[in-house]
Amino acid sequence: MKTITLPQPVRLLSPLGWTVFIGILLAVGVLVPVLNLWVPVGHALHMSDFAVSLIGKIMCYAMCALAMDLIWGYTGILSLGHGLFFALGGYAMGMYLMRQIGTDGNYKSELPDFMVFLDWKTLPWHWYFSDSFIATLLLVVLAPGLLALVFGYFAFRSRIKGVYFSIITQAMTFAFMLLFFRNETGFGGNNGFTDFKRILGVPMATPAMRMLLFVLTGMCLLGCYLAARWLVQSKYGRVLQAIRDAESRVMFSGYSPLPYKLSIWVISAMICGVAGALYVPQVGIINPSEMSPANSIEIAIWAAVGGRATLIGPIVGAFMVNGAKSWLTVVAPEYWLFVLGALFIAVTLYMPQGVLGVFIHIKKRLKRSHGESS
Amino acid sequence: MTPDLMSQGVERLEKHKFKQVQALASGGRHASFSRIHQPGELDLAHGRILYLEDVNVSFEGFKAINNLSLDIGVGELRCIIGPNGAGKTTMMDIITGKTKPDSGQVFFGSTIDLLRHNEPDIAQLGIGRKFQKPTVFEQLSVFENLELALKTGKGVKASMLFKLNGQQQDRLSEVLHTIHLENHLLRQAGNLSHGQKQWLEIGMLLMQDPKLLLLDEPVAGMTDQETERTAELFLSLKGKHSLMVVEHDMAFIRQIADTVTVLCDGSVLAQGSFDDVQDDERVIEVYLGR
Amino acid sequence: MKAIVWFGMCCLYGLSFSVAHALTSQQVHDIVSGDTDTRIESLQKTLAQADAQTAVFLQALADDAVLVAGQQVLIVRDNKATDAVTNQETALPAGAENVVSNNRMRGEIDSALAALQLLSPDDALRMKAAQALLSEPDPSKKILLEKAIAAEKNPAVSQLLLLAQAAIDITNNDAKVRLAAAKALGNSKTPNTQLLLNQQMTQETDAAVKAQMLASLADIKSALAWGERLGALFTGLSLGSILLLVALGLAITYGLMGVINMAHGELMMVGAYATYVVQAFFRKHMGGAFDYYLVAALPVAFLSAALVGALVERAVLRHLYGRPLETLLATWGISLILMQTVRTLFGAQNVGVENPSWMSGGVEVLVNLSLPWNRLFIVLFALLVLAGVALLISQTRLGLFVRGVTQNRAMASCMGVNTARIDTYAFALGSGIAGLAGCALSQIGNVGPDLGQGYIVDAFMVVVLGGVGQLAGTVYAALGLGVLNKWLEGWTGAVLAKIAVLVFIIIFIQKRPQGLFAMKGRSAEA
What we know:
Strand content of chain C: under 5%
Number of strands of chain C: 6
Strand content of chain A: under 5%
Largest interface: A-C, 43 and 41 residues
Strand order of the largest sheet of chain A: 1-4
Largest sheet of chain A: 2 strands, antiparallel
Strand order of the largest sheet of chain C: 3-2-1-4
Order of helices and strands of chain C: HHHHEEEEHHHHHHHHHHEEHHHHHHH
Oligomer: heterotrimer
CATH architecture of the largest domain in chain C: Orthogonal Bundle
Radius of gyration of chain C: 33 Å
Structural class of chain C: mainly alpha
Distance between the termini of chain A: 36 Å
Helix content of chain C: 55-70%
CATH topology of the largest domain in chain C: ABC transporter involved in vitamin B12 uptake, BtuC
Radius of gyration of chain A: 22 Å
Order of helices and strands of chain A: HHHHHHEEEHHHHEHHHH
């Protein structure tokens, strides 16, 4: 019997991959701080504060796109409500930041301004631990995680799939948006939270703090990417793809899809929550319109534009689409929605594998023609 | 006396012994008293691995399965034949847990009630199914398909931390060799030919190491040579595993079957050896034709 | 002040037994001169003996058409001067000054005029005046009221007048009078009376009167309860009928064709804007027939939305059949484009669409239940559209082909059915119905670029709840959700009711994932 050489377990990243990764790590951690803080303003190489905050914001979006790829690209579950998890993480951090304002608000009171405005005398129960940073960090991960766990358990258990599931996630985020718009819910109503002053006692509006947040976001994004890659390359990731392609077959092979779907759903939600928590201090505001269905659907399009089931694709997609949005809303604002709508249609019709898919396709063609000619 | 003749003699002796044991009144079964039964364990003391009794299923008024009673012995290779709409696939759906019958009993061994379990559990208990249409995981490679089907822990944590050990690698190689796909190890399963996909699915079934194999039209669309190989494979599996094969290819059935059951309109029409069934008037009228 | 009023009332009491005096010049003079307090007293006094000329004079006062010159008081209308007392035409003397009345005076004049209606020869006017007095009891009109009661022949008006009297008596000093009044008020089953009794109850000291007030309140409440229940039911049905119209189109495109159309709301918006355009056209070119613009708007809305739908289907959706998640995203993109197009063409603000006159107002079924005509028509319209669609699907060849293509595309194609064209027709039909829904929505709500966004989630919920493949599910789900939503609103307010409905649907889907009426058979996996 001929001995068959079985393939070796795949490494996390190829040597080339590691080089690129380290390169980006250094760029985020060293180069950008230097270009922004050390290089003087007006110099050609200076990186403006605006650029730093924009890229920081887009990196948070890229984390959401990564989370969406895990759940849609690899498991085949299209969620139109991921913006909700993002917003919940944001609100958790927002609560902490509101408490950090202390008595420096408009009403000079211990309570946040909007509560004074509503004539409330004490903090509601859901604000109890919001002055502890550790508790806030826990909440940032637990709030979206628990919601995802409960919702996902009931949804996957009754085998809701496909478009029905997508519509229900849309309804979920819509319901929460309505809830958070109410003043009585105690999250600032339709104004949300804003006017932040400090984190951990340190003032927020300084360039140093902004840079710190930027670097932190970059590290989180890179870390999440590595973790996602590890997950996806393991047998777990292959089972997820099998669930995406032929769920009934997976069941007959002895795997129960429910724990797999639930676990990736919760992980995906938690990544979005962390992204939201990093987003709010950089942008300085959070309000219920972050929970609108439109926001969640945009996350899906970032993943689709970049290329599903590639992990890098959605990150690239997030940068491309949001970059275009920043540019167009300044240059020709009334055209942005046309472009976005056309993007949705073009990607689904002509580029189902996304930008990365086109890239890979071209590479294959080149390799084939190169192979033929040589 | 050559080595070939020696091995042939050994085989013949084993077959003879097997038949002798079966011919006894108790059919190889031993007394059940003073045996300790573990709950959840497969109890084959009575020699039946699958037992269906009076199963009924209807889909909106159409009675798909009508008082079906069937049983399969341990190590047997049973063939199921019958016209379209006789309920063959539905019967498999019931056994594997995809469909719940309106009434009746389905037992795996003497003690495991299959109606109480769902599909993944039934697969883990040791019943493997091959579908009519080859369903493999198209986007994964042949190797990954087989690795997925491996009989090992199927939970989330087990999958995250999984690494193939030596024994499993050997098993994988063995199965790969059996299904003749050694050269296509890294090909995407979606790119295989129809016959190769059938083989891959059979390979996945073997990886699961099930006690009972349910095979729905395993040689449909295969060439003669591939059909021949499949027959050899099934015959080699018989005895250690029990098989239930649904097929329309009469030559194939003649080659492999111990017993043939004919299903018609949701119930058993006739049962016996291939020749008995072939000569049965009712079967000729309903299915075989003159 | 009180003494003067009392004195005045004695005079009036004495005078009321005499023959109804005509307006005297002294009275007229007193009303136009002096400070406001004295003027008001004189007004009250005159009111007690009011006649037709008093009404004319008071109306002139209200219209600022009265001038005074010395002792003579004149009414001037259209440059013609008439004497206020005799109503004879006279010459306008020089130095005549306008009579100015301040706000309080005006208020008194207006209420006096209203009260005078009590003596009007017209039954309807008297009825109206009596009702007005009942809703806003004014003790100063008491004498006039008694006079009216005495002279009243019409039993319906008489009853109202007695109730009005009771409304005034409820504040009387005498407990016995109040008791009788409380009892009498129990017969008036209006929310205003309820309010009055509740107000008086807080100031009431006498126990017996209080008990009687409670009893009367209970009576009124039980009578009103029916009105409230039916009112909630009607609002629920109205919302349900709107949801039905909105979801019907979606049920066709998703249920029959498996296309999830996120642009459905925008197709409704197209229909609504088509209605707006038709309205503008009628207003500009066919002013006389403006009331009938709706009749023309219906086919225009249907066709415009159907055309847009057909275009979308041919250009985009055709290539995405069998890929529901991609369809979802592509149609979302289309919805963005449609919204932005409308914003560019018509502006981002809401545009005004008026009800034609025959749809304005409402019909009063019970005292506290008034059903608006526009909502009634929409309920009727929804049922008609439903019937039309059901007939189309079940009785026509097109419907047969649509059903065939839905159930087995390959076989239908083999039978010679042009599946591509049928797809376009079916999608256009669904879109056209969305257009009709938009037309209906324009009659009861605002029309703006985000008209569709408000209804799309509800429409999806109806489709998810009702199940796929049968129109019956959509009907029951739409009506059920509408009624449920409105019923919950009564307890928890609009936002929480909506959230509760969404949660209810999510839980319902757990138990029954295929919805109320499921597509049966083997192919139940979407």
